[in-house]
Design goal:
The chain has 99 residues and is mostly helical. It has one domain (21-95): Cytochrome Bc1 Complex, Chain D, domain 2, CATH 1.10.760. The chain is built from 5 helices and no strands. Helix 3 (54-66) crosses helix 4 (72-78) and helix 3 (54-66) runs antiparallel to helix 5. The radius of gyration is 16 Å and the shape is globular. Keywords: Electron transport, Heme, Iron, Metal-binding, Signal, Transport. It comes from Hydrogenovibrio crunogenus. Residues 1-97 form the Cytochrome c domain. InterPro entries: Cyt_c-like_dom (IPR009056), Cyt_c-like_dom_sf (IPR036909), Cyt_C_IC (IPR008168), Cytochrome_c_Oxidase_Subunit (IPR050597).
Length: 99
């Protein structure tokens, strides 16, 4: 019974995780590791995306994708993003509160 409770608790925690909220674009799940759940990175090496201008974020992602802006990690993540996905990501992070 104790194991069943722990399993149920773990599953409910996983699905209640704000990193995977319904309003988050599917592609944003790969951004969470570096930029934080809501775009407020806790690591100085990774910029905070929350509250940035959507047009700036959109341009930055397109520049990474198209090779105009260089960063091996970002190029890897951005290379398969469509213009629509980039726009969704930019709008999502722009709508988050900067902390």
């Amino acid at each position: 019974m104790k194991q069943l409770f722990l399993m149920a608790f773990s599953v409910s925690f996983l699905f209640s995780n704000p990193a995977f909220s319904a309003d988050m674009p599917a592609k944003a799940k790969t951004c969470v590791g570096c930029h934080g759940v809501d775009g407020n990175s806790m690591v100085p090496n990774f910029p905070k995306l929350a509250g940035q201008h959507a047009k700036y974020l959109e341009k930055a992602l397109k520049d990474f994708r198209d090779g105009f802006r260089k960063d091996a990690t970002m190029e890897t993540f951005a290379k398969n993003l469509s213009d629509k996905e980039i726009k969704e990501l930019a709008e999502y992070y722009a709508s988050q509160e900067a902390k």
